[in-house]
Amino acid sequence: MPEQSTAPPTSVGTAQPRGARSLLTVASVAVALAAADTYVVVLALTDMMAGAGLGIESLQKGTPIISGFLLGYIAVLPLIGRLADLVSRRRILLACLAVFVVGSLVTGVAVELPVMIGGRFLQGLGGGGLVPATLAIVADLWPPGRRGTPLGIVGAVQELGSVLGPLLGAAILLVSDWRGIFWVNAALGVAFLLGVWLIRPEGLEQADDPAVAPGGDRARPRHRLVTSLAWLAGLVGVVAAALALLAPEALVTSVAYGEPFIPFGESDSRVWTPVGLVAAVSLLLVVVLTAPRWLPTLLEADVLGALLIAVALGSLVLTFSSADPAVEVLGPWGLGLLPLGGLAVVAFTIRQRTAAAPLIARGVVHGRVVPALVVSLLVGTAIVAIVVDVPLLARLTEGTTETEAAFVLVQFLVAVPVGAVLGGLLLKRFGPGLVAAPGLAVTAAALWGMSGWTRGSLDEPGTSTVLLVLAGFGIGLAIAPVNDAALADSTHRTHGTVSSLVVVARMVGMVVGLALLTAVGLRRFQQEVNALPDPTDSVAMLDAAVVQVQTVFAGAALASLAAAVISVLLGWRHVRHHYLLRGRGWQDRTHEP
Fold this sequence. Notes:
Strand order of the largest sheet: 1-2
Helix content: 55-70%
Order of helices and strands: HHHHHHHHHHHHHHHHHHHEE
Number of helices: 19
Largest sheet: 2 strands, antiparallel
Number of strands: 2
Shape: globular
Mean pLDDT: 81
Oligomer: single chain
Radius of gyration: 25 Å
């Protein structure tokens, strides 16, 4: 039975702790920026490749600029979610924002493809970690029964960021080159970092006090010396890294000061130089000096399990994200990466069963967490089917440009955040299952209608717009209920882990779902081509390609219908209890058998 208290209960209808909404606002806008960065480079990709010395004929080599971000976004989510359960949520937000800013700066100054990809990976790493940390903060600051609106807002801004990404990139490109995109990212990231630093809501656990070194006061001088050395090494590393990446012409061409910028051997890399080596050694020294502070926490979070799941998720992302969904299922590295990912999954399963403190604590995935993960996975499949195949169908219509095809998709993307906000509001009166199930049923019906589209269907704005809006609106309605149900059946010590699993499930659904639906669609396409009396008939070939798109929409409709049925398990009852805020979590003041 929950611990009783003589203090008056905090009712579900009372206000949240001071600063809660301000922190949610800053964190949510940061999540939107990170989501926008997934697609912000779409229009600037060829310019970025030119900045790395690659021509348009090397377009395939530029795909890691996008997939590198996705890899960072998804691969480390379980670890970041677990860390958010072990240390302050605000500290995780601050760390993720700092990594995002560093990644933006590195990408902005890069003139080599590996450096550019590394910067995008850091951006994804920081941006992806913002989502579970923000969702966990919502669970800390809002009691069950009052989380619907903030969860809907987080889901809405995340989807809105995806819409605004290409538009933001296009707007910046009107007044600057592609590097301006990342200067804006860095500036906004610093602003959000300061906002999170300054806003300290009551009741939310603050950063832990630094541990006192063994030996009490006698150890303090040594602790201060190590800290001073770490700061000095960090300063040297940052300055050296900046010089290596920027390579100021006045220094590089100088007879007196240019030697540290000369690459080793036959390399032409700015990084593989004496000044780059100084940066690497200095930053490595920082890692060694500060290890006693962060290594125990990292080990407690099960870094080995995190590494194994990162390999598995990374293999999925790189295999499918590098494929052209119109013509292939697996990317060029698929045959090698999928077996590697399979071995990592087996090893991770063994690790989960044998580790004393596994990455995903035993008993976390239970109750409504299970259907929430399944629904999230299926919703990811529906989303990616629409995002990929609606523009593809639009391009099959003669004379339609890529920009026009993208604007067709915007009708769907705008409806998703609208539905997400409404879904959060409805949770004030209805249970999560009662909100999510009808929404996903509407999406299934809309997708089934879309499966009958032909090449001319998108030229009929009335019908096509209604179906796209309904599909997006229904998906949006399910976002907050899924997160709400999962968080309701987890404790404050596992909110970060559960939040990260929900995001991972959705991303896996997008990656794997697209592959499976594309595989079936390509098979139907090949059957249609084989049945053609004249394989050189271009119009008939286009009609065969439409069959592939129809198949994908039909499969997505079935996935949405299955999600609607399973979402019933999220619960029909609205939470009407009273709660007290204790430490990092809300404690139920009432007791139900």
